[in-house]
Amino acid sequence: MRYKYWKAGLITVVSSIALLGFSEQVIADTAPRPQAQKHIVCNPQCAQVSASPEPAPQPAQSVPAQPVYKQSGTTGKRNPFSYDRLPAMDGKAARAPFASANQAPVQADDLWQVVSLAVSHYPSIRDAASVLEEQREGVDVARAGYLPKVDVGISSGRQSFGSNGQALSLTASQMLYDFGKVGGAVSEAESNVVLQQVKWQGEIDDIALQAAEAVIEVRRYEALVNAAQSQKEQLKKLQQLAARRVSEGASTQADLIQAQSRVEAAEASLLASQTQLSQQRSKLRTLIGQEPLNKIAVPENRLVQALATIDPNVEMTIGVQQAEAEWSVAQAQVSQARANAKPTVSLDAGVDKYLGNVPTGRDEYAYTLTVSVKHSLFDGGAPSARIRGAGQAARAAEERIHTRKLEAQNSWFRLQEQMAGLSSRIKVLGDRYKSMVDTRALYEQQYLALGTRSLLDLLNAEQEIFQAQTDQENSRHDLWLAQVNYINATGHMRNVFALMGASS
Prior knowledge:
By secondary structure, this protein is of the alpha+beta class. It has one domain (2-25, 34-61, 111-496): Up-down Bundle (Outer membrane efflux proteins (OEP)). 59% of the residues lie in helices and 12% in strands. It is built from ten helices and eight strands. The protein has helices at residues 2-21, 111-121, 123-143, 181-248, 253-288, 300-308, 318-340, 382-450, 455-489, 493-496; strands at 38-42, 46-50, 69-72, 75-78, 149-158, 164-177, 344-354, 365-374. Strand 5 (149-158) and strand 6 (164-177) form a beta hairpin. Helix 8 (382-450) packs antiparallel against helix 9. The radius of gyration is 36 Å and the shape is elongated. It starts with a helix and ends in an 8-residue tail after the last helix. The model is unreliable at 1-8, 16-47, 51-80 and 87-101 (pLDDT under 50). Keywords: Cell outer membrane, Coiled coil, Membrane, Signal, Transmembrane, Transmembrane beta strand, Transport.
């Protein structure tokens, strides 16, 4: 296998020299490098497609990049986030097309559809996908170091044999052995692809979470607007009752003034809730690229079922995956820094053709064919400093992994406690609301029939009912928010909502 790539490289070098030797014109015809085997196309769905059936050749003479292992205690294990194991982005994963200006509005009437619409519309996801494709091209750039390098040029000036003129030159160089320089560059480029893949998935999770939170907030303020409207109507009825009793001489003017004050306060509360509702609908409209429907369902049972299927694993979280990918990049940089401190062996060949007056007895062509060994004898200690710096970056990335794992676990525990507390609170608030409704009915009877209750008691009862209703709605929507955040914190956002980039 080694002989095969040596032979291929030598044939390329010799062929390049022969090209100039048989012609007075320099023909620089370099075949284009094969494109990345897979790349991302969003037209309109983001999908990974094949661009070339031929893999890029890699000579065996260069030391290949070693697999990256992460040490955990005394046991080394393979980093699970490798370039060869990137999740595929196929049409099944990309459920919804990217919205365009001329596209008809999509009828998204529940939480799942709105989240999918936001992910398919928001441009930051396509931005991250394009950066990912850029990183994939960087792998091809690094792999080009395995192949021969051919240069062509022209020079003008005084030649070695004493005459003035121009010279065409063609040089070719094939790396024979580099102690892993090219392999390290390829490994770093592949690690950067993995890192950007994780960032792309994190961007999907972030937009999905923002859309889900916006839907829940819209539902929250719709409920609060309804509660405030109901309170205003009930207080207006009491105001009319007070006005009638004042006209009949059964009550004082103070009752009417108190009722009027409560109605004005209810109107202020209603306006505040309507303003918040408009703001949340505007945020949701920005995320999905169209006017949201007036009633978007939040399937509570589906959320609960999704939570039941989640088995928390720190390796699934985006934060830990990104830290793992950053560690892989740092390890590749360590390997490359060490390789750069060693020499490089290459086969170099060249031919010059003189275009001016060539003295008698001089050949118009000059050929060279050498095996070169290049190494920096002194660089001010920079190579050693680079190795030490790369090692520190790897150690920092290792500690970052531990930090992200602790943060993920803390987030899980906090959200689990919050969900448990809110579930219990919702039950208590439901009982309180029923009690206050019964209390209001009793107060009305005592006020109208027995005269043992004042109008202020009825006004206070309405205030208590409104407070119990708003507390209940806020707790219910806080529970939905906690459930969605728990799905995101455990790294299951794409799987639960069936989004592009979901793991298989």
